[in-house]
Amino acid sequence: MPDFLTLYLVVMLLNLSHCLMWGLIAYRYRDLRAARLWLAGSAASVAGRVALSLQGESGLMLNTVGGNGFIIFGFYLNWCGARCLHGDNVERTQVSYLLGSSVLVMAATFHLWYGRNPIYTLAQSLPLALTAIYLIRPSRRDLGAIIASTAIAMGALSHCIIAGGNILIVTGMRPDLHLYQAASIDLLVFLFAAVIWNFGFLICAFDRLQAKVEQLANEDELTGIANRRMLTEHLNRICGKQKGANFSLLLLDLDRFKAINDRYGHAAGDAALKHAAAVITKQLRQGDVFARLGGDEFCLLLRAATAAEATLIAKRIVSTVKATPFPWEALQLSLTVSIGIASSEGTQISPEALLDSADRALYETKRRGRDGYSVFALPLDHSNNIVRLDHFPASGSAVRS
Prior knowledge:
Layout: H1 4-28, H2 33-53, H3 61-85, H4 92-108, H5 113-135, H6 143-171, H7 180-218, E1 226-227, H8 228-239, E2 247-254, H9 257-264, H10 266-281, E3 289-294, E4 297-303, H11 307-323, E5 326-328, E6 331-333, E7 337-343, H12 351-367, E8 372-377, E9 388-393, E10 399-400
Parallel strand pairs: 1-3, 7-8
Antiparallel strand pairs: 2-4, 2-7, 3-4, 5-6, 8-9, 9-10
Helix pairs in contact: 1-2, 1-7, 2-3, 3-4, 3-5, 5-6, 6-7, 9-10
């Protein structure tokens, strides 16, 4: 079995490789703050291993307490990195209290050889346990989190077994127990666990980066709602289902949007688009897909909604948008919206036909004065002509085409 100095050097080299890995990732993906925290954690572990390797046979208090303190700090930085990656606040105050308490307790028990070992080991296990518990929660239980939490739990368990053995020696229950070889095995197990949990962190980071790329590909940059690409995917999926499903599509335009751009500037136009998107989003149900197609044109896909249900939602959107002016500088600018509605009504319909039907209904709304909604009623005849078209102005009256 290799001596502890050799094992510490191996662990230190491993931590240096982790520093290199996280350093390159942090440099390449500069918005990934978790990578910088994991880099700092690996660097703190290197500093701790260097201090411990220089403590000598008898052990210097500064090296022993300081080295273990740096290692524990590195483990807390791993916890902070995991929290940062998943969008939670980094508990700096809590980390400061826990780290400070650990250092004080380690300093107070330095002269108790077998007594200090459980304290030092358990002090290292605490941030590991916090990280493993955090990663195993259902909201974060992806592949990388499972790998990292399992490896961290394995390392903490190995440490706790050694701590338990030293407690048996201190309490006199097993005063003849020899743990030198077991401690070496513990360090090897910890070495293996560190490789695995950093691999798990790496998977978590790549998953998060991939999710960010997918979000950018499917999200409208200005309003934060879905874009045309995402709407098309949902529309193709729902139209491809078996005949009999009820769903509806709403095409929406902001009325006289060009006049806002011309009079107040494009910044006001962008503000109007974001305001309208936010107001309309509050009127939606869970599972509805609201997307910006481009310019001032929006589209709303209503799952499990008949034409009658879609008209109720459209009526609510029309009245809410009109009743909610948006502030621009010292002004309160009013908006109105025109809507065209098409529904499958249980028939098989292609995405193109549904969009065309909603577009015809939207055109009818504009033709009759805007600020309202029109319903393109299915079924269609074989030539794809309109069978019935109803228009409902904001006042609530109905007009038959």
